[in-house]
Amino acid sequence: MYNREEIGKRIKSARMERNLSQIKFAELINVSTPYLSDIENGKTNLSLEIFTRIVETLQVSADSLIMADTPQSLEYSSAELSRLLSDCSVNESEAILKMAGTLKEILRSKI
After folding, report:
1. Domain co-membership, 55 together with 36
2. How far apart are CA 75 and CA 81, in angstroms?
3. Spatial CB neighbours of 110, under 8 Å, sequence gap ≥ 6
4. In a structure prediction context, what are the per-residue pLDDT tens digits for the chain, which is 111 residues long?
5. What's the half-sphere exposure (Cβ side, CA atoms, 13 Å) at 13?
6. DSSP label at residue 19
7. Do residues 64 and 73 touch, judged by C-beta distance below 8 A?
8. Looking at the UniProt record for this protein, which Gene Ontology cellular component terms does it annotate, in alphabetical order (predicted)?
C-alpha cells in the first residue's frame, strides 16, 4: 500500500545519507524547498516525474523508497553490496563486513 509518510521518511533519510541539505536537494530536483519539505513529511503526493528525479538524483532504487522491505529491495541491496565488494582485497572485504556487522548491531540497539 502507498504510504506517503514512509516514502517521505525514506527520501529524507537517503538525502541525509548523501549530506544534501533540503535547499540543495530541492535545487537538484527542481522543486521548491517547502514542496520538498511537504514530500519528506508525507503531506503531498508525488508526481511520477518528480519521483523519477528524486530516484535519479539520490541514485537509489525506486522500490527501496516505495517498499523498503520487499524482496526486490533486499535483492537490490544484496547486489549493491556484492558490487561494492567486487574489487576489494580480502582484507578490505573483511573490514567492510566487520563494519557492516557492527553497524547492524548499533542500528538494532536503537530500535
Report:
1. yes
2. 10
3. none
4. 578 999 999 999 999 999 999 999 999 999 999 999 999 999 999 899 999 999 999 998 888 888 766 555 566 677 788 888 899 999 999 999 999 899 988 888 865
5. 10
6. T
7. yes
8. cytosol
- Domain range spanning residue 92? 71-109
Cell for 43? 503531506
> Beta-carbon neighbour count of residue 41 at 10 Å?
13
Burial of 40 (0-12, 13-18, 19+ CB in 10 A): buried
Number of separate domains in the chain: 2
Amino acid at position 73, single letter: S
- Alpha helices, H only, 1-111: 4-17, 22-29, 33-40, 48-58, 62-66, 71-85, 90-109
Report CA-CA distances (Å) from 41 to 12, 71, 109.
Answer: 9, 26, 25
The answer to whether residues 31 and 77 belong to one domain is no
